Amino acid sequence: MSDARLSVLKTYKLYVGGKFPRSESGRVYEVTDSKQSWLANAPLSSRKDARDAVVAARKAFGGWSGATAYNRGQILYRVAEMLEGRRDQYVREVAAAEGLSKSKAAEQVDAAIDRWVWYAGWTDKIAQVVGGGNPVAGPFFNLSSPEPTGVVAVLAPQESSFLGLVSVVAPVIATGNTAVVIASEKAPLPALSLGEVLATSDLPGGVVNILSGRTAEIAAPLAAHQDVNAIDLAGADEALAKELEIAAADNLKRVLRPQPVDDWAAAPGTDRMTAFLETKTVWHPTGSLGASGSAY
Amino acid sequence: MPTTAPHALSDVTASDSTLRRFLHGLPGVDAVGLEARAASLGTRSIKTTAKAYAIDLAISMVDLTTLEGADTPGKVRALGAKAVRPDPTDRSTPSTAAVCVYPDMVATAKEAVAGSTVKVASVATAFPAGRAPIAVKLADVREAVAAGADEIDMVIDRGAFLAGNYSKVYDEITAVKEACGTDARLKVIFETGELSTYDNIRRASWLGMLAGADFIKTSTGKVAVNATPANTLLMLEAVRDFRAQTGIQVGVKPAGGIRTSKDAIKFLVLVNETAGEDWLDNHWFRFGASSLLNDLLLQRQKLATGRYSGPDYVTVD
Amino acid sequence: MAPVFDYAPAPESRSVVDIAPSYGLFIDGEFTEAAGGKVFKTVSPSTEEVLSEVAEASEEDVDRAVRAARKAFEKWSALPGSERAKYLFRIARIIQERSRELAVLETLDNGKPIRETRDADLPLVAAHFFYYAGWADKLEHAGYGANPRPLGVAGQVIPWNFPLLMLAWKIAPALATGNTVVLKPAETTPLSALFFADICRQAGLPKGVVNIVTGDGRAGAALVAHPDVNKVAFTGSTAVGKEIARTVAGTRKKLTLELGGKGANIVFDDAPIDQAVEGIVNGIFFNQGQVCCAGSRLLVQESIHDELLDSLKRRLSTLRLGDPLDKNTDIGAINSAEQLARITSLAEQGEAEGAERWSPACELPENGFWFAPTLFTNVTQAHTIARDEIFGPVLSVLTFRTPDEAVAKANNTPYGLSAGIWTEKGSRILAVANKLRAGVIWSNTFNKFDPTSPFGGYKESGFGREGGRHGLEAYLDV
Questions:
Q1: Superfamily of domain C14-259+458-475
Q2: Would you say A192 and A183 are in contact if contact means Cβ atoms under 8 Å apart?
Q3: What is the pLDDT of residues A2-50, one digit of tens each?
Q4: Residue A294: closest C-alpha in chain B
Q5: Is the omega angle on the peptide bond into residue A188 within 30 degrees of 0, that is, cis?
Q6: CA-to-CA distance for C350 and C360, rounded, in angstroms?
Q7: What pTM does this model have?
Q8: Residue C107 to chain B, least CA–CA distance (Å)
Q9: DSSP secondary structure, C240-280, as one string
């Protein structure tokens, strides 16, 4: 009896604009572990929470996309450092959320932290890999560079509450986009905890915004939102994905359709970055050294 | 002092620094865009009646030129005769605008074209290098004018220009202009191939016009790159803009490198679509050329007869 | 006073092109009639003369074409890349050989000046095939994995403004990567695609690799919706692009869209002014302004507004409008009565909303579809003509005071295809280019195209890139 200390529970909150609000709706829903035991009351986000998150993401976009790639890399690496420090917490949360053994959960968390590190290193390399000079047939300098597409709505995978989440969020922000993330509906706690890490990692507020609740309810206004530039449907089932893709056509969002993922730990490649990049091509005359035509 | 009338820009020549500020404040020239525009105008297709008009106009704009160390009175007399009557077999062929010779040949040239509309132009100011003391240059000009030259083609001091000594160039032009008196018109040669950049050519054009040039002229014909469609287009823009600002019209003379009728017609298209029809007259536009004339004559014969002519049917001088 | 230097008519000869009185659909290597036997007429926009009658594809015909493409896919995709390359090189060469004929044809069917089809469209068409031909056997080096695979059958729908060039942009990368195609040219400009079918025949291209179905929007819709199409590529209006995006939602069809624009051409006070004037003219009057990346909004720094406008008006007065086949024509005909009506109505709205309208003195031919080059001054971002794509020779002139304001106004549109920057200051070009939300930025130039240079938009101007290494992605399973 003397050993049994009553633990202090955490009230899980949304992460929007660098702050931790409760849902504007004032509502929560019960989150349970795989054995249906109560874990927490998570905020049940409303349309207005989605709207606020988009405003925060848009506001953060200029600064984040305008930061140097080196700076973004430093901050993402800092996120990995903070995650490492909270490794045990995530192992507990993931084990509870996904019904995994401690060691299986640890594998997931380790893979997720390593993935942050991987993407942190990409920030200042992706432009060199997917951009470059184009040898046009004329006296012009012509350069194509990737640029972030803007505000990306991300439906995090439903099954992989942490590694899946990290695998879809990190590539979006590594390249300078800002994100509104809908956490796994039944296992949102690792995502909500991620907000706490991001808040202490020098990541500017609004770059990542995390909402929990009913995926379909939150995703609908995001897919239709005219100030959202792209949507990642990883966490949508077939019917929802189609409905959202139709709504997304209204302002021609870039849509990343859900693809079956057997193993989130597999090497991801660059696709999740390039899906949310625009190619900008700039032309400029070169001309000659002088009117007399330099012949060298 | 120069005799140019006061105009909207007269204050920019008040001092070395105002002149420099003005010239450096002129809009820049994008070389690729300028050359693309010149090339695009070069694709105009000038056929039938328009071609006949253009060929006669081009003939009337030729400053038929001989500027050789080996020039003799005989050579100059032959040139004068050709200028007056370019095609002895067809009296409807217009005379050229002028003959262009060295100062010591002015008197001979004057005699050769006497009684015609053909003017005598003389290069002066230590042509083509322009590297002589100012007194020598002015003496050169005065001799030519005294011998009856109607027009003086001076070269600017490119060294002074490239060194940024715009006042020196300006003062020289105004002094030469004064030496020309009221009768001789002054053409100012920039030697664009040596100024090298289009920005320099634009600045030189404005400098020349501010100093009282009656004509601005590309080149001496003695360097590697002479008149080109692009540098002539640029100078046509300058005379157009100068008249818009001051009301003063200045002529343009591309010289050197224009050898075919096709080329000449391209230049006339540049004139027509840049400065406009007010410049389509030999008072305002000239070709400094020698071999061009025979090609114009061949093309003229082709248009008149419908068959291709040959070099034996034009005079060789 | 000198007589005026009038250019005598210099018409390109029509006899270099032989247009048949009627054309069928090109399916599985054969010209065939439409299933219902329906036909439509294609006219010359500059004279309204009927050029030919063309089969109107029904849903059944589209299905036949897709099946032909599917059948051809197996062998075509299995060919070594080097063999596919040689077919494309052949096509590029034949286009070069027949470029005069094709230029005249395109001018007749589209209404654009021969100067443009001869000097821009056709050279770019050949260059595009030449460029992608070389990719066919180098795909493993393109950055899309060790063995990138084609998608299958590509359904491609193209517009009327650059009929043959848009065909090249679609077909060249599709074939290079091993896909087969069904292409639907625009209703008003079907002829050059049908001539291209003949080029495929001359090149010995296996039957079914390229299929051309002519018709109106219904044929396009049927193609896009066809369940056995793996890839949809569309160039055209944003409204139709959105409809297509909805149609393919929930399928596995890969989609690329190249849509409308409202490009800003930003002129700073230190611009190379004469070249800027040329760039403005080229930006909005090239192809009568019927260009998705047209610089239809001129943003001029207020301090040089008046002198720039004087220069621009003087320059517009030298534009030569008339017979598109005349080699000296700068401005040709509007492509269709429908498009002319749209331009006319938007221009009237511009006037009604208080913008000041100006056109140079210019006589419009009696027959055909014509619209004089038009400037609107005193335009603000609130005017319809500053927001809606006009797709015609109409320029809206707005002013700005600072670079920040220029960028804000340039980006203040749902579109994001193109923009222009004119300044002699290099750092300003880079700073402004960096902030503009547009896929193609021309600094101190405008409307330049090259097969190596990726082209495509941000935001509602569509997604995906055409041209360059980037253009391969749209046709690969990556």
A1: Aldehyde Dehydrogenase; Chain A, domain 1 (3.40.605.10)
A2: yes
A3: 578 999 999 999 999 999 999 999 999 999 998 999 999 999 999 999 9
A4: B196
A5: no
A6: 17
A7: 0.96
A8: 17
A9: HHHHHHHHHTTS--EEEEE-----EEEE-TTS-HHHHHHHH
Q: Which residues contact B155 (CB under 8 A, 6 or more apart)?
A: B123, B125, B126, B127, B128, B129, B130, B189, B191, B220
Distance CA A80, CA C350 (A): 55
Would you call B43 and C115 a contact, using CB atoms and an 8 Å cutoff? yes
Q: Is B217 designated active site?
A: yes
Pick the CATH number of B12-305 from 3.20.20.70, 3.40.50.300, 3.30.70.360, 3.30.2270.10: 3.20.20.70
Q: How far is A211 from chain C (nearest CA, A)?
A: 25
Q: Are B33 and C278 in contact (CB < 8 Å)? A: yes
pLDDT averaged per 10 residues, chain C (length 478): 78 97 98 96 98 98 98 98 98 98 98 98 98 98 96 98 98 98 98 98 98 98 98 98 98 98 98 98 98 98 98 97 98 98 98 98 96 98 97 98 98 98 97 98 98 98 98 97
CATH homologous superfamily of domain C264-443?
Answer: Aldehyde Dehydrogenase; Chain A, domain 2 (3.40.309.10)
- Assess whether pLDDT exceeds 70 at residue B2: no
Q: Would the CB atoms of A140 and C259 count as touching at under 8 Å?
A: no
CB contact under 8 A, C459 and A229: yes
In whole angstroms, what is the distance from residue A113 CA to residue A130 CA? 25
CA C225/CA A56 separation, integer angstroms: 38
Inspect the interface and report whether the beta carbons of B31 and A293 lie closer than 8 Å. Answer: no
Contact A252 C459 (CB under 8 A): yes
- Has residue A263 got a pLDDT over 60? yes
Out of A144, A252, A285, name the one closest to residue C245 (CB).
A252
Per-domain boundaries in chain A? 39-285
Measured CA to CA, the distance from residue B229 to residue B216 in angstroms comes to: 15
Q: How many CB atoms lie within 10 A of CB B287?
A: 29
Q: What is the pLDDT of residue C293?
A: 97
Nearest residue, CB atoms, B50 vs list C2, C7, C270: C7
What b-and-e string marks burial along C453-472, b requiring 16 or more CB atoms within 10 Å of the CB? bbbbbbbbbbbbbbbbbbbb
Split at pLDDT 50, 70, 90, the class of A296 is very low
H or E stretch at C134:
helix C122-135
**Using the 8-state DSSP alphabet, how is residue C416 labeled?**
-
CATH T-level fold of A39-285: Aldehyde Dehydrogenase; Chain A, domain 1 (3.40.605)
Count the Cβ atoms, other than its own, within 10 Å of residue B259.
14
User: Is B262 a known active-site residue?
Assistant: no
Helix boundaries (H) for chain A = 47-66, 69-85, 87-98, 102-122, 126-130, 163-174, 189-199, 215-224, 238-248, 271-274
Angle between helices B166-180 and B16-24 (to 10 degrees): 100
Can you give the residue ranges of every domain in chain C?
Answer: 14-259+458-475, 264-443
Q: By CA distance, what is A279's nearest residue in C?
A: C439
Between CA A42 and CA A23 the distance in angstroms is 9
Separation in Å, CA C134 to CA B83, B312, C81, C283: 58, 52, 9, 31
Spatial contact of A287 and B32, defined as CB atoms under 8 Å apart:
yes
Of C414, C450, C469, nearest to A136 by CB-CB distance is: C450
Domain boundaries, chain B: 12-305
How far is it, in rounded angstroms, from Cα C219 to Cα A57? Answer: 41
Residue B227 to chain A, least CA–CA distance (Å) = 10
Residues of A in contact with C259 (CB under 8 A): 252
**Which residue type occupies B66?**
T
Lookup result for tokens 């941000």: C458
CA distance A141 to chain C (A): 10
Give ∠ CA C35-C248-A254 in degrees, rounded to 5: 145
Active site residues of C: 258, 292
